[in-house]
């Protein structure tokens, strides 16, 4: 049997940014080749840094898909763990746990040929450029396209043993925002001869806070977050440009569109009021809201509630996280769920430390579900 903890720790040490997952792909391929050696019913293909593994069913009438993402984040790890990443990237969103779970599932379910086809997708670039959308639009699946798609995301606040989902919207739709205010640089002592882009950007960041508080229906939901801001070079030089990088989110595309429009209006208004230019780039990519298929989600929830004694099934409210699995679920019915990992630090934190007990729990219980799905 695979040593899941070793695999997770190996993967944890080599996180890579989306579409650059070269070492990760190499590592995954090594383990996958060990698992599928001498199994004629299992086939593999790659797409860029992604991997697809198909278990051909003995009497297949459909294809069930299991998806994992494989990319890391630009986060400097501060966990102090002996197997911490040292390359300035981190699996701070738990994709090392996702990948290891998928490998464990492949090992268990690949032992015997299923009746239905079972596809494992190791998908690049969940965090940055919507690898799932790119694979779908680029026909990476070919005739391996699943009829139903399933996937999970770790959730630090939930305990190991918790599986949480719902029969409607699980995650928000997101849109990445890049803005550059363009003013005129100058000497700190002569502000009247310059046009300070840093000050314009600061006004903008303050004003956009009113979108959620004053433009979105209080019964709706939206997020406007700027996580990155760069302006200027030193204390006594007025900044010529100011760059802002953020994300906006909403549970419906209508609200997302309204937030986008309002953000553009405020950006242009602030730039105008300072007599500056502003360049605005809004990239939605494939981050559609993650909509669970009601019937399949009901089936999955009923299974985990009644057929797996170890699982504590939670019917959960939507969260404002984004996921490009939303794009795949807009094309193929399926379900995403949260998997508890009991970490004191949250997702995207440099101190996130999942409880590794989750690996055995996830593999044994999800394998039971996928077994039923592929033996119908
Ligand atoms: C689960 C998770 O954390 N996903 C990311 C997805 C990011 C999408 C896009 N790059 C954006 O920033 O809008 C998240 O931040 O929710």
From TrEMBL:
Domain of life: Bacteria
Pfam families to which the protein is assigned, alphabetical: M20_dimer, Peptidase_M20
InterPro entries for the chain: AcetylDAP_deacetylase, Amidohydrolase, Bact_exopeptidase_dim_dom, Peptidase_M20, Peptidase_M20_dimer
Residues covered by the Peptidase M20 dimerisation domain: 173-270
E.C. number(s) listed in UniProt: 3.5.1.47
Active-site residues per Swiss-Prot or TrEMBL entry: 69, 127 (proton acceptor)
Metabolic or biological pathway, per its Swiss-Prot or TrEMBL entry: Amino-acid biosynthesis; L-lysine biosynthesis via DAP pathway; LL-2,6-diaminopimelate from (S)-tetrahydrodipicolinate (acetylase route): step 3/3
Alphabetic keyword roster: Amino-acid biosynthesis, Diaminopimelate biosynthesis, Hydrolase, Lysine biosynthesis
Substrates-to-products reaction catalysed: N-acetyl-(2S,6S)-2,6-diaminopimelate + H2O = (2S,6S)-2,6-diaminopimelate + acetate
Family: Belongs to the peptidase M20A family. N-acetyldiaminopimelate deacetylase subfamily.
PANTHER family given in the database record: N-ACETYLDIAMINOPIMELATE DEACETYLASE, PEPTIDASE M20 FAMILY MEMBER
UniProt function note: Catalyzes the conversion of N-acetyl-diaminopimelate to diaminopimelate and acetate.
Protein name stated in the entry: N-acetyldiaminopimelate deacetylase
Source species of the chain: Lactococcus nasutitermitis
